[in-house]
Structures are given as C-alpha cells and as structure tokens.
Specification:
It is a single chain. The protein has about 375 residues and is of the alpha/beta class. The protein folds into 2 domains: about 190 residues, Aldolase class I (TIM Barrel); about 90 residues, no CATH class. About 40% of the residues lie in helices and about 15% in strands. The chain contains 15 helices and 14 strands. The strands form 4 sheets. An 8-stranded parallel β-sheet has the order 6-3-2-1-10-9-8-7. The protein has a two-stranded antiparallel sheet with strand order 4-5. Strands 11-14 form a two-stranded antiparallel ribbon. α1 links the parallel β1 and β2. α11 packs antiparallel against α15. The longest helix is centred in the middle third of the chain and has 19 residues.
Amino acid sequence: MSVTHIHRANFLTTGNKISQVWALEQLKAGRATTLETFWKGRALEKILDANPDIQIFLDSGAHSLLNAQSGLIEGGADIATEKRDCEGEIVFTEEQFETLSDNLKIQYSGKIGGAAQLFTDASFNANDDVKKYLNSYIAFIHKYKKQISAYVNLDIVYHAEESWDNQKIMESNGLRPIPVFHYGEDFKWLYKYVDEYDYIGIGGVAGGITIQQFVNSLGQRSFDYINAHKPGLKIHGFAVTSFDLMHRFPWYSVDSTTWLKFAAYGQVLVPRLHPRTGEFDYTRAPRPIPVSEQTRFGTKQRHYTLDLPPEAVDAINRYILESETTIPEVETTLLGRFKVNQHYYEELLKFPKIHEQKITRTNRRLF
C-alpha cells in the first residue's frame, strides 16, 4: 500500500480524558498520526502547549464553515452567521434543480420536499465572520507552526475562486498551505494546483457521494492527470479510509473518522483470515465486528459470539488481545474499541502497496 500516513481524524480531541491521554501516548510513541480540525477550541491549544514535541496535521474546518454559512448546522465552526446575509439561502424547485450539474445534484439531493437547498452567496469571504475565522486560523498556525507537520488552506467548498483567494492571503502572511480540489469543481483548479504545489488535497468522499461516483467523476481522472504530469506529487485524501480507495490510488496521506465511528457504534475492525495461512490478512477489506450489544446511540445489535462459529470467535478474541486491550474492555468502553481500531490501521500501514487488480472482493463470510 502506498499510503504513508493514515491520520486518525481528531484523535487527540475525541472521547474523554482517559482516551485522550492514551491517544497522546500513541502519538508520542510514533504509533499514530492525527489530523485535527477542532483548532478553534481551547482543548487542542492546551494539548499543544503542554506537549511541544508532538506533531499534528491541521485542517481548516472548511466543511464546518460551509455548514455555518449555509445554515445547515447552527453554530458550525464556532461562528455565528445570519442564514440570509446576501440572500445566502436559496431553495430551488424540482425543475430548477434539474439545471444543476450532476455533482451538485448529488451533493444537495435528499432535501425536504424534493427541492435542493444551495448556498449561493456571491462571496463567502466578504462575510466578516469568515474574515475573522481566516485571521484566527493564520494566527493559530503561526503560534504552533513548529508542531504542525502540514496545514490546509481555508478552502471555501464549491467556491474555488474564493478558495484561491484564501490560498493567496495565507501565502501573503508567510504560510504555504495545502490547496484542496473538491468534487464538483472545474478541473482547471486541479491542473493549477498540480503545476504550482508539491502537496495538494482532494476532497469529496464526505459529501454524500458513493465511492464509485468518486472514482468515475473525480478520482481516476485526477490521478491519471497527476501521474502524467507530476508523478510523485504528494496527495492527501480527505475522509478517505475506504479500503478500495486507499489501495486504488497512490495517496501520500489520508484521514478519516472511521476509527471513531465504528467504535461509537460498538464495533471494531478485524481483518479477514488468510485462506491458506490462517494469519490476519490486510490485503482484503476488514469486517466491522459488533463487540457491544449497546451502542452509544441507544440502538442494539447482536454480539459477535451469537452469530459466528467458534473458530471465528476464537480468531476475533485473539485479535482483540493482540490490540493491547481485553474483551471486557472492548465490550464496555469506547477506549477499548479505540485500541482495536488503532491497531488495525497501525498494522495496515506495514503492508506493501497492493495493486488494484489483486484486491479480493468477496461476499463470503469474513472467516
């Protein structure tokens, strides 16, 4: 596998104090890397102040900013904005919706009443809250620059021109952020980023599109261009820890909250067993195993011991113990499940690049 870093998104700032202490230990020991987005809160500042030797990958929180500005999530990105500043919220009829590009249809489908809600403010960057947000972000980077391995532009999702404006503003302040090309944007921006930068980001998987849509509409075309014009370019995949996507394209780094989401749902990632050797096989997609009957969201699920044969249960138990935790801890605590999922990504990074044609897709049982 070509990925060098699988950043655990918000690894340091998620969970309770006990899990955060454990995450910090993992980071210091070089067993994990993290992408942090909660830079506006004091929690991350306190961690960085107390641990000057750690390194983080810093995201700008662009999606939270989009949510706040469009009114999709109140208070997103810790800024207060008026929904209708500059006629900020527009609702399209179904007929008008059909005139949108396919990419925007995918992103904004499923809204109430069959219509599409799209934020089309003429300028995000003209909003005073966005200006303050950007200035605070620049100040944060300067303050903790020695502890930030890489940082991302304040990209305005679906407003590529304004993302470029922010890129230049940050550069005029002595910074060199990673620019981000988003699903649905004109490919001229990708070409520009490839020409002018050594490390770029590609986003879109978190926007509600399928993996196949990402591959067909953005991924394959992007990497074909990069491989032809600038092979070796560092590429970060935002919200990319799908097994197939990680192995299909030559990412340098990726990030995702998958490690956290499965744990919150009472599940852990367990690799399949190799059919010949019986060893844990990281060349195939893992299976999420329900280790707790009760999830954090109040839903119930069947414990793995009720549905799998004894040999499969034994393999899962063995894997849990290899993850430096115990079965009772995994069944009853979020931290226990964090440990297993952290172990999975740590071991996955040790495997060499696996070519796409060798990936085994199967509907058979995991074990």
